Amino acid sequence: AQSVTQPDIHITVSEGASLELRCNYSYGATPYLFWYVQSPGQGLQLLLKYFSGDTLVQGIKGFEAEFKRSQSSFNLRKPSVHWSDAAEYFCAVDYSGGYQKVTFGIGTKLQVIP
Amino acid sequence: DAGVTQSPTHLIKTRGQQVTLRCSPKSGHDTVSWYQQALGQGPQFIFQYYEEEERQRGNFPDRFSGHQFPNYSSELNVNALLLGDSALYLCASSSPVNTEAFFGQGTRLTVV
């Protein structure tokens, strides 16, 4: 079965520190890959997406992600975290060829401390 | 542009009842997908509607059904509610030319 793994359920970082959230997807044809962010009580906002081409993808709010086929990974990074980045982050994959049947990871909850 | 709108925002139902949730897609989008997000979990794909037909379905029982109207809006119906159906239900819209999905704020369903 197609799946996506986010090994870190909860991460705490200091404001201004760098951030990396891990994501691994099940081996197979390269899916469409996404990172979403969800603030408490809110819907999901797309941070960035990868379909093909350059493996380093830039997104909104200063986030970037790197697709590594050899590791089946799509890790999210940010060089300097702001307090407003505290939220839950979901990695997601679409194996349906872009028809938006998306499988989400369990999410990583980010806490930012001053 | 109003984006994806869902109604109601919150709902409380009794076990065994039926519920209908509504979604209006973003302007220009013709595809609507529904997701269930239980507490502490990632969203799970329920089904997707395109051209008023169910195009794809996730691993959900037949108690979950839907409909898409000619204006592309959609409804999610859940019959014989169980306590385990308590969740945030998210609607996402997309279009064939843009594989990015836009999500609504969700409907919080509580079954008591």
Layout of helices and strands, plus pairs?
The complex is a heterodimer of chains A (114) and B (112).
Chain A (H helix, E strand, L loop, with lengths): L3 E2 L4 E5 L4 E3 L2 E2 L6 E7 L5 E7 L5 E3 L5 E5 L4 E6 L8 E8 L7 E3 L3 E6 L1
Parallel strand pairs in A: 2-12
Antiparallel strand pairs in A: 1-4, 3-9, 5-6, 5-10, 7-8, 8-9, 10-11, 10-12
Chain B lengths: L4 E3 L2 E4 L5 E6 L6 E7 L6 E7 L2 E5 L6 E5 L5 E5 L8 E9 L2 E6 L3 E5 L1
Low-confidence stretches of chain A: none
In whole angstroms, the N-to-C terminal distance of chain A is 41 Å
Strand content of chain B: over 45%
Rg for CA atoms of chain A: 13 Å
Oligomer: heterodimer
Question: Biggest sheet of chain B: strands, sense, closure?
Answer: 7 strands, mixed
Order of helices and strands of chain B: EEEEEEEEEEE
The low-confidence runs of chain B, each spanning 5 or more residues with pLDDT under 50, are: none
Tell me the number of helical segments of chain A per DSSP (H or I, 4 or more residues long).
0
Please state roughly what percent of the residues of chain A sit in beta strands, choosing from under 5%, 5-15%, 15-25%, 25-35%, 35-45% or over 45%. over 45%
Model description:
The complex is a heterodimer of chains A (114) and B (112). Chain A has 114 residues and is mostly beta strands. Chain A is built from no helices and 12 strands. Chain A has strands spanning 4-5, 10-14, 19-21, 24-25, 32-38, 44-50, 56-58, 64-68, 73-78, 87-94, 102-104, 108-113. In chain A, strands 2, 5, 6, 10, 11 and 12 form a 6-stranded mixed beta sheet that branches. Chain A has a 4-stranded antiparallel beta sheet with strand order 3-9-8-7, with no helix packed on it. In chain A, strand 8 and strand 9 (73-78) form a beta hairpin. Chain A is globular, with a radius of gyration of 13 Å. Chain A starts with a strand and ends with a strand. The relative contact order of chain A is 0.33. The mean pLDDT of chain A is 92. By secondary structure, chain B is an all-beta fold. Helices cover 0% and strands 55% of the residues of chain B. In chain B, the strands form 2 sheets. In chain B, strands 2, 4, 5, 6, 9, 10 and 11 form a 7-stranded mixed beta sheet that branches. In chain B, strands 1-3-8-7 form a 4-stranded antiparallel beta sheet, with no helix packed on it. The model of chain B has no long low-confidence stretch (mean pLDDT 94). The chains are: A mainly beta (114), B mainly beta (112). The interface between A and B is medium-sized, with 23 and 25 residues.
